[in-house]
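Records of this kind hold a single protein each, on a pair of labelled lines. Below, a sample record shows both lines together.
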Amino acid sequence: MPDSPNDNNNHQGNNLRVRRIALDTHDQPVIITHRNSPVCRSEGFAAHARVRLAHRDHSVIATLYQLESDLLDEHEAALSEAAWNRLEVNEGDLIHISHPQPLDSLGWVRGRVFGRRFEHGDLHAIIRDIAAGRYADIHLAMLLTAMATKDLDDDELISLTEAMIDAGERLQWDRPVIADKHCVGGLPGNRTTPLVVAIVTACGIWMPKTSSRAITSPAGTADTMETLAPVDLDLAAMRRVVEREGGCVAWGGAVRLSPVDDMLIRVARVMDLDAEAQLVASVMSKKIAAGSSHLVLDLPIGPTAKVRSEEAGRHLARRLEIVAGAFDLDTRILLTDGRQPVGHGIGPALEAEDILAVLDNSSRQPLDLRSRAIALAAELLELVGAAEPGAGKQMATETLDSGRAAAKFRAICEAQGGMRQPPQAGRTHVVTATRSGSVKAIDNRRLGRIAKLAGAPAARAAGVRLHVHLDEAVEVGQPIYTIHAETAGELNYAREYSGSNGDIIVLDEIGEQC
């Protein structure tokens, strides 16, 4: 049963005056009251209770926390930014606090835990309740666990994807061909998206790209792009940019495409739980909601990538293709090399520098990033019919070499609000090889961990610059990577982790480490 409109006038005793304290809880609505609040006492609300907050025509389900100090008086409540924005309140407004309606959809989640399959309507009701903020993190964790322990069948997976699409906005474009590209992640520095957008749009194909921010990685595409141009575009701004330049690289959270996906990802990462159904629905719901007609998917495979084996990659590709077919999304999937990071930079600004170097055909450009971007752009150009089969690589290469891709990228940045210069870190530390040899293995996950400890992605200039790649010869004392940080404390955290994890880069067949 949906929440009813605010009924403050009938329950004046359950009103509290709100204060804004800029509390960042990501997307979780939170309310803080005094422990002696008469509203909480009368309703029996204790700390960590789920409560319904209402203001005029807006309502949200929030988690209650309480304090015993003079920061709040007994008739006040402080709201997290998530709750504040959803209720659309102003400082000093009155909100109504009450018990939430029972969540019928939780019964279907519990049933799934015990082996009952989801019916079509079940998943739609569950996703609607999540989108409305009615599920606490523990409820989301129960749903994710239920999907991970017994994977969804194909019909359930299609229903989940459809429900996630319906819970948010959906873009429509007055064009028969809308190109898109996505990588399932897990590979530091693999920032091909801005390059593919530049190449494909320079060839006259529309590519309105929405991208994610990092959750547990050192950078998401939106984080990297934000060091070069604004990415917080609403739907109207995004449409203006695309109609002017044919493409964009915007943050998906600002345009509210499949908003439930971000909620599920946040909890899944904390749990360190990879549910295949959630991954497939996550990727495909955002592509379909963005109005894409043709999609190229990059699945990097490697021992420390998200997809660990070729067998797992083929299985995931089949599931993605099933969902794509159900929504008439023309899709091509590439299984690519995920044994090592791509490019030199790991972290927003460092990755942005790699992008610019490739666009400018600089002598310093990382050739692996260039070749991956060309390969993906080539597949997309052939998929949409802009290039004949087998001719996409030449078209993409010529577009990059001629400078047309660079010019288009800068035009997109200007249309999004202006081109920016990536920041540079004030502090660095060089890690050198402790012996000579050739590079045998690189641990993607732990190298990414160093970049995060250095401050990425919140500190835009922080991260790691990688100086060696697989099979390259290394001399003792040679720099193998450099840690970049904005503060001394973060640099020290990263150095300490690096020093106690000497096998992040492994040399030659003996297995000696540096």
